[in-house]
Amino acid sequence: MLALKKSDSSEWHRLLTVVYQKTQCSLIKLAGILEVPRLTARTWLRRPKSQPRDVDALQQKLEGFIEAPKISAPNKSSRHRMWQSMRCLQIFTVENIMATANTGLSTTQKYVRALANAGYTKIYDKKSHHVYWHLIKNTGPKAPEIGRNRDFVYDPNTNRLAWQKKIPADRTDDLTIRK
After folding, report:
1. What is the total count of domains within the chain?
2. Does 3 fall in a domain?
3. Within 13 Å, how many C-alpha atoms sit on residue 86's CB side?
4. Of 19, 41, 67, at which residue does a domain stop?
5. Tens-digit pLDDT profile for the chain (179 aa)?
6. Beta-ladder partners of 123
7. Does residue 1 form part of some domain?
8. Core-most of 3, 42, 101, 172, by most CB within 10 Å?
9. Last residue of one domain, picked from the residues 25, 45, 67
10. 83 and 36 co-located in one domain
11. Which pLDDT tens digit goes with each residue over 40-76?
């Protein structure tokens, strides 16, 4: 850690600018790190020659922010969000899942139908234009994975293949290995 001299305002301003950029140019976050009002942080950014009274303490806060490890939350896929919604709701419509998981109609319909093929969901009730689905197999927090062509369902909670599409007998000839 470098100790700033009272005359070395350029180093203070450089460090302040680096932290400001790391906070995605958010004055509110920068002010929170420095524990000063937002307008004070803005003044320090706009005036490179200005320097606070207690530079050393503020510099320690800035360097602490830079050196702190950045921990990010895991990326929640749309399938994971749909699965979590189904687990919470138990009985749901495709529209419910779309609203709670923030997914599109086609994506949601394909996922629910693939889970129905694997025995995870079944139709509970049909009322006018809505089909109510029931989650009957809740195996855990990890979302079942659907094959690219919706030809299989793999469950990471049980670590097993939950369902695989049947291949017609006349197409098995295509699967033979030719030398």
Report:
1. 2
2. no
3. 30
4. 67
5. 444 444 467 788 888 888 888 877 788 888 888 889 989 888 888 888 887 888 888 888 888 888 876 655 555 788 999 999 999 999 999 999 998 888 899 999 999 999 999 999 999 988 878 899 999 999 999 999 988 777 889 999 988 888 888 876 665 555 454 44
6. 133
7. no
8. 101
9. 67
10. no
11. 888 888 888 887 888 888 888 888 888 876 655 555 7
> DSSP string of the chain?
-PPPPTT-HHHHHHHHHHHHHHTTS-HHHHHHHHTS-HHHHHHHHH-TT---S-HHHHHHHHHHHHHSPP--PPP--HHHHHHHHHHHHSEE-HHHHHHHHT--HHHHHHHHHHHHHTTSEEEEEEETTEEEEEE-----SSPPEE-TTS-EEEETTTTEEEEEPPPPGGGGGGGSPP-
Q: What is the C-alpha to C-alpha distance for residues 10 and 51, in angstroms, rounded to an integer?
A: 9
* The predicted structure's pLDDT at residue 65: 82
* 63 & 83 share domain: no
Q: Identify whether 72 is part of a domain.
A: no
Nearest to 109 by CA among 124, 122, 93, 125: 93
Residues 56 and 33 in one domain: yes
Q: Which two tokens stand for residue 61?
A: 């806060």
Distance of CA 2 to the CA centre of its chain: 37
Phi, psi for residue 98 in degrees, rounded to 5: -60, -45
Range of the domain at 137: 78-170
Residue 38 within any structural domain of the chain: yes
